[in-house]
Design brief:
Number of domains of chain A: 1
Structural class of chain A: alpha+beta
Strand order of the largest sheet of chain B: 10-9-19-18-17-11-16-15-12-14-13
Number of strands of chain B: 19
Radius of gyration of chain A: 22 Å
CATH topology of the largest domain in chain B: Rossmann fold
Order of helices and strands of chain A: HEHEEEEHHHEEHEEEEEEEHEEHHEH
CATH class of the largest domain in chain B: Alpha Beta
Structural class of chain B: alpha/beta
Largest sheet of chain B: 11 strands, mixed
Helix content of chain B: 25-40%
Radius of gyration of chain B: 29 Å
Number of helices of chain A: 10
Helix content of chain A: 25-40%
Shape of chain A: globular
Distance between the termini of chain B: 49 Å
Strand content of chain A: 25-35%
CATH superfamily of the largest domain in chain B: P-loop containing nucleotide triphosphate hydrolases
CATH architecture of the largest domain in chain B: 3-Layer(aba) Sandwich
Distance between the termini of chain A: 35 Å
Largest sheet of chain A: 11 strands, mixed
Oligomer: heterodimer
Number of strands of chain A: 17
Chain lengths: 369, 482
């Protein structure tokens, strides 16, 4: 099952290309297989077709990040952008997770990642997975051991096993894979633009400050630049949504926000400068985080390189859009994974009765817990 | 395969691509709890409606061309199951009957269990055994999809109205020849109205040698070896020729009747005397002109003669084929009007012999009958003449030339490929099968494959690849670049 993977060779990139770099995916695959082995103790399988699991941690974080309500109001500074066309490679990574179903002892989920890169006007992709997992209370510790081992922490500060419930396991596994891929890309590329889906906010279980700092340092050392795009932000300034302030600016432009605190609490840190980006014509604008330790002119230059070398639709980079498309699970794929699990592990598929339906009949429309 | 849903007499089955099912196949839905099985036939194979398939196809379509290339790292090979789901099929089937205790009935008033039923393919050989369709006088029609020979019972054609139809070059004429030769083998008399001279060489093998049917095939070519004298013709037959084939008006027809009777009374019923009688007959000159024009048409047809040595006696030929043989009337080089004259004569004579019990019954094969059969004859053939013992098989590539009521009364339909929706719509009016079956299966029939409908298959439609014949078929189109 464990094998040496073959990748599409490009002139400059080959993701990832050293044996050391494979450690996590191999462990990831091994872990996937190990967790699936304990399905033999289970014969019940409640298939599940749900929408993509939202990242509760990140969502909660953004919900509470009303950072611009302090005594000193942040200032807005529009920055017009001029495209720099120098064929800088653009790389994006995205990871999706999906709950596949439940067994009587745990949950079944699947993780898939996609890396898309654009070089010399050509897009290429590498899709990893899907990796199915069967996470139970028994193997939870083993799963989180991997977190500890590969969380890039010398001394883990959190006891994952006690704090995390099974419900968030898919998200956590997805975040782990995403961090690894981000690190892998950062370490193996140079002079590139690396696009992340999300913000540069650190201090959560999935994005510890030290890990994120180390990650950004690696990026800087390899002369790369991370541009983190947040699709939907709830950040508000003077009661208005942050992204609304850029509507009067002529694209392509950035709206720099100055004068806000670097830490939202003892734990939550903002490792990036926050911009509102409107990179092309259209109605959309996004929150864009760029490494705080990068000089401002370098940050702006990175944004100019992006608009000069990347296709932008509604201000959103195509590589990131493709990474999302390639990683996301369709309903058919969920059925396929369910069938794979049922076939390879002789799971008997049963559908548990919907209690709401049983109790309330046609009025029982709420989600089944 | 899993039973998915049932609506009316339509059943939908879900299956995966590794379960090979094609249009026309029979499936058996066995319900072990009810101890019986539903017999269903596949009429269409579709892709199952899978949620998210559009997104997947759109995503994968970006792989085409030079836009984006990439690789998938799927160490557990989960994708194989995903592609399997993508290719999942929905099989649309029609209920044909129920098998209980090895006996088949057309009942379909019960519903098998969706969760408990097992579905398996039923080979055509097993089906024909259950149906007992080749019991008495087998006609070897061809091979089924499983390469087992398919035989139908010749008695299922006896006393029946049959239609062989399909678009050009699909093998209708070949099949008709097979039917003709098989009927001959079983001792049946067959009359073929051969429009293109295709049946004339049925007595020869493909390498021009005489075959076992040689002595049983009698070819009559009008105005050549098929001529008759007026004295052999009944007034009623001649009257039909004049009125229906030559459109003689009523007044003139009455005068002709008088002339005919006069000539008959004086034993002067000949072509020459008829012309003289019209010339000397005291009547309106318009009537005389009308009679003369028809007279000259009769003369010019070459079908009538005053020379007894040239004339044939049709009764003799019918006598020859009485215990098995074919009388092929070659209409190939005959004009439209002359064809009608010949056919009017032939059918009139046939009825005359059948009513007089000189002939027990005859199988009539009529190719493209609309080209020589008058309108009123259609109903006559399928209703009245059938009772006299004329069992017709219409062969056509233009199904709309056959009236709807004939399709409704057809006992057997041998259907070849049609792609034209209008043609399929016409054929689907046949009462022997539901229109969906006809439209769906006939559209995808390969050449030389025939969908058998009706009595011959006991109303269980079966697709067969028509067997080859070692005869000179002469049905091939003449080509310039060959």
């Amino acid at each position: 099952m464990i094998e040496q993977y073959q990748y599409t060779t490009t002139q400059k990139y080959n993701f990832p290309h050293t044996v050391q770099d494979f450690q996590l995916p191999q462990h990831f695959i091994q872990l996937s297989l190990r967790t699936l082995r304990n399905i033999k103790n289970s014969r019940l399988f409640q298939p599940n077709i749900t929408k993509q699991l939202a990242n509760p941690t990140a969502q909660t974080l953004e919900e509470t990040t009303h950072l611009f309500t302090g005594p000193s109001q942040p200032k807005l500074k529009p920055i017009p952008l001029k495209p720099i066309r120098d064929e800088t490679p653009v790389i994006a990574v995205d990871v999706s997770n999906m709950k596949i179903g439940e067994t009587d002892i745990g949950i079944l989920c699947a993780i898939r990642a996609a890396i898309v890169w654009k070089q010399k006007h050509q897009y290429r992709y590498l899709r990893l997975g899907p990796f199915p997992f069967h996470i139970t209370e028994e193997n939870k510790s083993e799963v989180y051991h991997l977190f500890r081992q590969y969380s890039f922490l010398e001394q883990p500060t959190l006891d994952y096993t006690s704090t995390l419930s099974l419900i968030y396991a898919p998200t956590r596994l997805g975040a782990l894979l995403e961090r690894w891929l981000q690190m892998s890309i950062a370490a193996q590329t140079s002079n590139s633009l690396i696009l992340w889906d999300g913000s540069l906010t650190a201090g959560t279980q999935d994005a510890p400050v030290t890990v994120m700092s180390q990650l950004l340092e690696t990026v800087r050392n390899r002369s790369n630049t991370v541009l983190a795009f947040t699709k939907i932000t709830r950040l508000r300034l003077l009661g208005y949504r942050l992204t609304d302030y850029i509507s009067r600016c002529t694209p392509p432009c950035l709206l720099e926000i100055n004068g806000y605190p670097m830490a939202l609490s003892n734990a939550i840190r903002l490792l990036g400068n926050i911009y509102v980006a409107k990179l092309s014509e259209g109605n959309c604008s996004f929150r864009l985080d760029i490494d705080r330790k990068l000089p401002e002119e370098k940050a702006v230059e990175a944004a100019q390189r992006l608009i000069g070398n990347e296709l932008l639709m509604q201000s959103y980079p195509e590589t990131l859009r493709l990474a999302h498309i390639y990683s996301t699970f369709t309903a058919n794929e969920v059925i396929g994974i369910q069938r794979f699990l049922a076939q390879t592990h002789q799971l008997k598929i049963v559908t548990r009765p919907n209690v709401r339906r049983l109790l309330f009949g046609p009025f029982g429309k709420g989600p089944e817990s | 395969m899993r039973l998915y849903r049932k609506e009316g007499n339509t059943i939908q089955i879900l299956c995966f691509p590794n379960e090979s099912v094609e249009k026309g196949d029979y499936l058996q839905v066995e319900d072990p709890r009810q101890n019986r099985a539903l017999l269903i036939q596949v009429i269409d194979v579709q892709f199952a409606s899978i949620p998210g398939i559009l997104e997947e196809l759109l995503r994968d379509s970006t792989n085409n061309g030079d836009v984006i290339n990439g690789e998938n790292l799927d160490p557990l090979n989960v994708a194989s199951q995903i592609t399997l789901i993508q290719d999942a099929r929905l099989i649309i089937c029609k209920i044909r009957g129920t098998i209980q205790n090895g006996k088949l009935s057309v009942s379909s008033a019960w519903l098998p269990s969706r969760s408990q039923s097992t579905i398996k393919k039923l080979s055509t050989k097993t089906l024909t055994t259950v149906l007992k369709i080749n019991d008495k006088l087998p006609i070897y029609v061809g091979e089924t999809k499983e390469f087992s020979p398919l035989k139908v019972d010749a008695t299922a054609l006896d006393g029946k109205l049959n239609i062989v139809t399909g678009k050009k070059e699909t093998g209708k004429s070949h099949f008709s020849k097979l039917l003709v030769l098989s009927l001959i083998d079983h001792g049946a008399p067959v009359v073929v109205l051969d429009l293109n001279g295709e049946y004339a060489h049925l007595g020869y093998t493909s390498d021009c040698k005489k075959n076992q049917h040689y002595m049983k095939i009698h070819v009559l070519t009008p105005s050549s070896n098929f001529k008759v004298m007026l004295s052999q013709i009944k007034l009623r037959v001649m009257f039909n020729i004049l009125v229906h084939a030559l459109n003689l008006p009523g007044t003139s027809a009455r005068e002709f009747r008088r002339i005919w009777r006069f000539l008959k009374e004086h034993a002067k019923l000949s072509l020459h005397e008829l012309g003289e009688a019209i010339r000397n007959w005291q009547c309106n000159h318009h009537v005389k002109d009308a009679l003369f024009s028809r007279y000259y048409t009769l003369v010019n047809s070459g079908f009538f003669t005053d020379n007894p040595s040239e004339a044939i006696t049709l009764e003799d030929y019918f006598q020859k084929i009485r215990t098995g043989g074919a009388l092929v009337v070659n209409l190939r080089d005959t004009s439209f009007v002359d064809r009608q004259i010949v056919v009017e004569y032939l059918l009139g004579k046939l009825v005359e012999m059948l009513t007089g019990w000189k002939l027990k019954a005859v199988f009539l094969v009529a190719e493209e009958a609309h080209l020589y059969l008058r309108e009123t004859y259609w109903n006559d053939i399928v209703t009245r003449m059938r009772h006299f013992g004329v069992f017709t098989t219409f062969v056509t590539n233009q199904p709309d030339t056959i009236r709807e009521n004939i399709y409704r009364q057809a006992d057997n339909i041998f259907l070849f490929n049609f792609t034209n929706a209008h043609d399929l719509e016409t054929v689907s009016r046949a009462a022997k099968v539901d229109s969906e079956t006809v439209k769906s299966i006939a559209r995808d029939l390969p050449p030389h494959h025939c969908l058998l409908l009706g009595r011959v298959v006991k109303d269980f439609p079966i697709v067969v690849k028509v067997r080859a014949l070692d005869v000179q078929t002469m049905g091939q189109t003449r080509l310039f670049f060959n």
